[in-house]
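Methods: example folding runs. The two proteins below were folded one after another, and each record is reproduced exactly as written to the output file, sequence line first and structure-token line second.
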Amino acid sequence: MAIKEQASVRSNWLKRHWLLSLLLAIMLTAGLWRLWHGDQGKKQELPVVKADNKVLAEGVVYPVHYAELAMPVEGTVGDVLVREGDRVKEGQPIIRLVREEYQDRVGSARSNVAGAAAAVEQARVSLTEAERELARQQRLDKARATTRQELERAQTAVQEKEAALAQAQADLTAGKEKLAESQGQMNKTELRAPIDGTVVFMDVKVGEHAAAGTVLVRIADESSWEVRSDDLTELSVAKVKVGDAVELTFDGIPGLDLPGRVKFIRAYGEKKRGDITYTVFIAPERWDERLHWNMTAQIAITPST
């Protein structure tokens, strides 16, 4: 019995030893397989591609010099003196409002000034007469040939005439200011071109009511153009410098690529679309006549190192 029990124990021990050895062999094989294939995977990884460092933005075509004209006073349009596409010179009349009402105001103010000037002259004459009477009373007082009441009356008259003259002069000054204001308002009924250029936009007709401050005419100097973008955030604009190279493409003209340079960066940021953005001005190095004001441009800025 004892011999059989010892044989059974030895057999169990051998089985456990064999199973443990088999398990260790399997684990070792798996580890070697993973190590081998892991190295192969690393060898097969693609090289890292560096991202393009260009700053991308969207912009708008602008003439470098342009004017947007609005009537500073309201009224009815009396004359439209140019048409879209016309070339104009600085100072050339563009639009006139009907001026009768403003002319009436000027005429009334001018009449008031004339009346105030006459009142000043009359007050000056009255003061001169009062001063003469005071001088006469003073002489009589020295000669004891007048009463104290007469002398005081003459003194009071001079003071009153001086006050009347001062008031008349103040009225004249106010009248002249009103006349100047009325003349200024009438002068504002005519729009003149502030620059040489081409009329590229006109939204006005004779007989229409022109509201003060509404843009009616746009004039562009078509000799030089630029692209502006307010699309650069704080992170983007920090990478950009004046003089950086720019590539411009245009949504409306596929295939047109223009080189350019950053010429100005506005230092003040504005909150737009939930971000603080900065405006960048780009000068194209050449131009294409197919481009027009307000066309959309795609901008790719290459920051200098």
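Second run, written to the same file directly after the first:
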Amino acid sequence: MVLSFPREDLSHYLDFMNHLAYQCHVILNESETLNSLKDEKFDITVIDGFNPCSFLVAEKLGLPFVAVFPGTFANGPQVGIPSPLSYVPVFYSNLADHMDFWGRLKNCLMSLISAIVQNQVQTKI
């Protein structure tokens, strides 16, 4: 069935998101490193857009940023990258850009679940 989403896959996704939250917590609380970066007086930051924590580091440093996206995760829409659910598959959905009705429905549901999970993880930071 097209709408199946194995519980094991969801568990791996949640583990991954929790790891990102932990990593972000550690980075943002590393005041010595952050202060050292501030002291360098950089004009701009170039960040890896895959990890949502990169945006927070740039914000904490008070610097504008350029984000490089080696592959969009689920945070593209959050930074203004158009991602129409009708043909842009959600990360980890195993869908392609050509979807039938059920594929689009699965993509919409996974987008909703992803947004809920990201919100829960980001509130831990």
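Comment on the second run: The longest strand covers residues 45-48.
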